[in-house]
Amino acid sequence: MPVVAVVGGQWGDEGKGKVIDLLAGTADMVIRAHGGDNAGHTVINPLGEFVLHLVPAGIFNPAATCIIAPGVVVNPVSLLKEMDALEARGVATTGLQVSDRAHMVMPYHLVLERVQESLRGKGAIGTTGRGIGPAYVDKAARVGIQIGELLDPDSFKRRVHVAAESANRFLRSVEHEPEIDGDQIVREYLQIAERLGPYVADVSGRVADAVDRNARILLEGAQATLLDIDHGTYPYVTSSACTVAGLLQGAGIPPRALTRSIGIYKAYTTRVGSGAMPSELRDETGAYLREHAHEFGATTGRARRVGWFDGVLARYTARVNGFDQIALTRLDILDEMDSINVCVGYEVHGQRVDRLPSNHAMHDECQPVLEELPGWRESICDIADFAELPDEAARYVRRIEQLVGAPADIIGVGPARTQTIHRGDLWGRPD
Ligand code: GDP
Ligand code: IMO
Ligand code: MG
């Protein structure tokens, strides 16, 4: 029963969309299990270039069932928009199913997040502004509204009015902030329900059946381990569990069904939003990489912070997840560098440490210990075979494998599906 989890090993935007699209061609089911439309997964395949936020990146394989699982928080407005945009470009969304247990991101979540971020001032998290945090807060407080509740209009109406009144009690204390109009939300969401209704179902039986019949199931991670609510760089994290374990929980797949987990790592590091980033490049090398690699967010368009590959954090995330293998993406971005650094440790007040302190107040104190490796100074974007890589590029990959502690069986040498070096069997060991 091949159940493969694909999880970000850094701070997101590692290229999960590309890897999922690659694997999904032979998958029976692709599941988004957590997070929401804060994700932006880019896919470039023969159908064109797409950025997906909620729809699983398996949607391009008409034979695969795509599931949005209970662990996801769904903004139904953006989901419909995304589905319409896909349909308009000839990608059928009929294979999509949304769990009736998935919670909804409501309009007041977006307002609350905007106000809360501005009240945080300098301590702002730098969220994507999609209302993800407040939606998970309501879920944990057991006042969230599940998407299945759209199908019972009277009860939905009552629940929205209670939530709107609670949001308004807070908003009345904020200057110039208009109140939430519960009636308008009810009207808008019930209209959406008419269109989304056919896609909403109790997916648990379908997922369990797929596990039982040994279907090929792909779990599509969003965000990444360093943004995980428990294991990430708290409080500068997202509000969901982004690890392999989190994906199993969000999807409702028993841990013993997992056959393989793949960590996705960029050949260097990026981060969007606030929080520590010890290997960050604040100089012209960073500016060069950002421009050359076009490191601007797929969801918000914000400039991504850029740094050297951080081997300390990469090893940490590989161990938290138990990655069997890694996909190393964007190796081609380093093509023109004379030399490339990797971070192999930190110095904190003159003391060498080999892990990120768990106290976030100390993160800014971590100075990277860098190891310099030679660059290859030639284009690798057409290389399909590991043996054809320049020696320096192969050496760089091997050093990263050593630091992470897992083999790089997938290596990205360009954004297109075809620009990939494969070194292992995609689906891993069958049981
Ligand atoms: P995700 O959120 O993890 O799916 O990643 P994003 O889509 O936000 O950002 C990754 C970016 O890198 C996208 O623009 C991809 O098209 C691109 N990409 C993925 N793999 C490669 C690669 O191996 N080389 C290059 N040059 N670009 C890549
Ligand atoms: P994908 O799936 C990169 C970051 C935000 C912010 C923090 C909290 O495309 O890799 P949130 O809106 O989730 O409350 O923001 O998390 N963040 C991401 N960064 N890629 C993502 O998703 C992200 N999703 C959230 O920038 O720092
Ligand atoms: Mg992204």
Instruction: Sketch the major β-sheet.
Output: 10 strands, mixed
Q: What is the strand arrangement across the widest sheet?
A: 9-7-5-2-10-1-11-15-19-20
The secondary-structure class comes to alpha/beta
Name the overall outline.
globular
Poorly predicted sequence stretches spanning 5 or more consecutive residues:
none
List the helices and strands and how they pair.
Blueprint: E1 3-8, H1 16-24, E2 29-32, E3 41-45, E4 48-52, E5 65-68, E6 73-74, H2 76-88, E7 96-99, E8 103-104, H3 107-120, H4 132-140, H5 153-171, H6 182-196, E9 200-201, H7 204-212, E10 217-220, H8 244-251, E11 260-266, E12 269-271, H9 284-292, E13 305-307, E14 309-310, H10 311-321, E15 325-329, E16 339-348, E17 351-353, E18 367-374, H11 391-404, E19 408-412, E20 420-422
Parallel strand pairs: 1-10, 1-11, 2-5, 2-10, 5-7, 6-8, 7-9, 11-15, 14-16, 15-19
Antiparallel strand pairs: 3-4, 12-13, 16-17, 16-18, 19-20
Helix pairs in contact: 3-4, 5-6
